[in-house]
Structure formats: C-alpha cells, structure tokens
Amino acid sequence: MSSEYIPGSCNIGTGEIRRRQAVALFGLFLTIFSITTLLATDQNKSARLSIFIPAMIFSIGFIQSRSKFCLAYGLAGTFNFDRLGKISKVGSAADRTADRKTAVLILIKSVALAALITAVFFVIPL
Q1: How many domains does the chain have?
Q2: Would residue 32 count as lying in a domain?
Q3: Where are the bilayer-spanning segments (predicted)?
Q4: For the chain, is the Cβ count within 10 Å smaller at the N or the C terminus?
Q5: How far apart are CA 53 and CA 1, in angstroms?
Q6: What is the dihedral sign for C-alpha 35, 38, 42, 43?
Q7: Rounded Cα gap, residues 105 and 57, in angstroms
Q8: Structural domain of residue 48, as residue ranges?
C-alpha cells in the first residue's frame, strides 16, 4: 500500500481507506435492507428502482477504497496520508488535473456499478 501521494493514482492513506470501507459496508447494508423491505412489502416493480441510491453509496465507498483514491479530494485538489481530517493541498496544476480525471472516472464507475445492481434487481423475477 502506498503511503505517499501519487497524482491521479493514490490520494488517501490507511485511515481514509478504512473510512471508505465503512461507507461501502453501510451502503451494502442499506441496499440489502432496501431489497428485503421491497420484497417483503410486495411493492410495485417500479419501486425496485429506489435501490439505486443505497447502491450508489455502496459503490462510491467500494470503488474509492479499492482505488485508494477519494473522489471528493480529487475534485478539490487535496489529499490525506496523515491523521483523519488533516488534509493537504496538491501543489501542481498538472497533478490537480490528473486527480480530477481520476475522480470523474471513479464517479462514472460508481454510477455504472449502482446502475448494474439496480438493473439486476429490477429484472430478477422475484
């Protein structure tokens, strides 16, 4: 695991990665809870689309933790390898540009994963 900032590749350390893993677990719990509730209450099939939001929470946390890259930090031009909450600024404009590209890619991947989870739940005949 890298313990230093790498533009466009790694902008968070161990503590921040664990925080994103916790977000992913929370999103997974919300997704499973939502699916269970929708199935138990015999909702209209279109209500299944509502799991997109909890699936998105899961997806963002999961992809950020696996990528070792924070979407928000990437967009803001910051990084953190110190204690939680101690954020540093990215100095180079080229590095900020690389970080923004990675952040946008993480957002696209997260939307795609959440959409896939939602689509699978929508089409499964339960």
Answers
A1: 1
A2: yes
A3: 22-40, 46-63, 103-124
A4: N
A5: 30
A6: negative
A7: 16
A8: 14-123
